[in-house]
Specification:
By secondary structure, this protein is mainly α. Helices cover 76% and strands 0% of the residues. It has 21 helices and no strands. It has helices spanning 9-13, 16-28, 36-47, 51-66, 69-77, 82-104, 113-141, 146-171, 176-194, 208-235, 240-281, 312-315, 323-327, 330-351, 353-359, 364-395, 401-420, 425-452, 457-465, 467-489, 499-544.
Length: 553
Amino acid sequence: MDLDYNPSRKSLIKNRWVATAASIWIQCTSGSLYTFTIYSSILKSTQGYDQSTLDTISVFKDLGANAGLLSGLLYSAAPRRPWLVLLAGSLQCFAGYFLMWLTVNGLLPRPPLLVMCFYMLLAAHAMTFFNTANVVTGVHNFPNYSGTIVGIMKGFLGLSGAILIQVYQITFKDKPSSYLLLLALLPTITSLLLMGFVRIFNTNEEDEKRHLNRFSFLAIVLAAYLTATIIIQHILKLKLYVRIVTFVLLILLLTSPVFVAIQAQRDKSYRLLKSLLEHNQVSDDSDLPAEEGMSIGPDHGEYHEDLNGTNDDALELREDLNLLKAMGTISFWFLFFTTMCAMGSGLATVNNMSQIGESLGYTTLEINTLVSLWSIWNFLGRFGAGYISDYFLHVKSCPRPLFIVITLVAMSIGHAMIAFGFPGALYAGSILVGVCYGSQWSLMPTIASEIFGKAHFGTIFNTITIAGPVGSYILSVKVVGYIYDKEASEQGGTCIGTRCFMLAFIIMASVTFSGFLVALGLLLKTRNFYKHVILRRLLHSLRHSKFPTDILN
């Protein structure tokens, strides 16, 4: 055997670690919807909108951001070409924001309201294409740790709003019209430059969890840095050179994923070379070491499934369910209902945070702090739920739907805290609701990929996501808004006291508790599936990853 093993240059840039780093960078520029408050003022003033009209445009923003069915269908039609999905997202992002920029700068005549709503819908819809391409590709590339990779992708997306605001403050501060041009160009250029790297690679590696943990650590460091920067900027008036230094540090943190990718690929190259050397030394015996008696490692020591007699058909059960077949199962509607309860009540809470704080006597500074910290709790939920559920699935064999059960009952407690309004209740309640709300963004897509398979994963989880704005509309408008307006009318237009939101949040606590009961049903229905299919499939894949047979091209 020729032992002069030299990985090609192509393999050093075309691998799933570089694909992950590229996806992270795209996610970091895709959260423009979280910065609507920055450019909403310029839309309102230049177009002569009142608050009600601006809220209408915001509704189309939320609709576009959650209606991801088309992006899922496109990914399913071209599963080996994620770049097509990213290209479609880039074109929509540029068109939507660039047309808005031309309008607010007077380069286009003032359009009818429905046309402006279409611009907003187009720009918002782009995020579903970016998100679908990156999340679904990540799940394909890391099927053994799907919760962790979804948490990483969703976590960086959750931080992207804060990242874009930092870019805005250093480049176009107090120029919201220029910020619209930034949103038209930055996500589009980033995606076009990196979309060729985002690909599916069918490989298994022994230590992939270690490198995924490094990406996770970078996400936590970035979140901590952004939190500290935002707090300092609110307290102190920083000079220009200080702001430039903090921005440069942010850029350095954002480049760090590429170093993780380089190290991961180096480790893989070394491991493959070592395997080739060992194979050459035992060339008189062409068979690899037998699996019997092999140690899986400390992270998987509690698997007790016997793979003897397990055939490939059993391991691939339900791998090809499409959207229509998935909608014919009770598990799909269980997930849809739990998503509607959790995401709907979470959105209703954050949308009314200012009014809740005012009614309970919180100061403006306290209310602004609560709103700012919501994104951090959201990030912790997105990232933590994926990582923790993966850990317990691998180590304790806990079915992942168990964590939807836990988060929904915790969310119910958080809504009850806000309802009764005791001192500090809004702080404690918003933390519980924020973390549990964020966790749904990691848990739901991961569970959908496990129950219905990865073949049409993008279409299925994007369809379930529609439950979020449906629940938000019902709870925000028909419950919270209606009850508050009724109480305010009895107090002369402004409501002060715990009674303003007590009934609304008791209702939302009941709604999330009903979601908890449905999630419990999902857990009971799928626990045998996780035991006999998911855990066997994981162990089968982890054992095979001990013997790297793929040679870098």
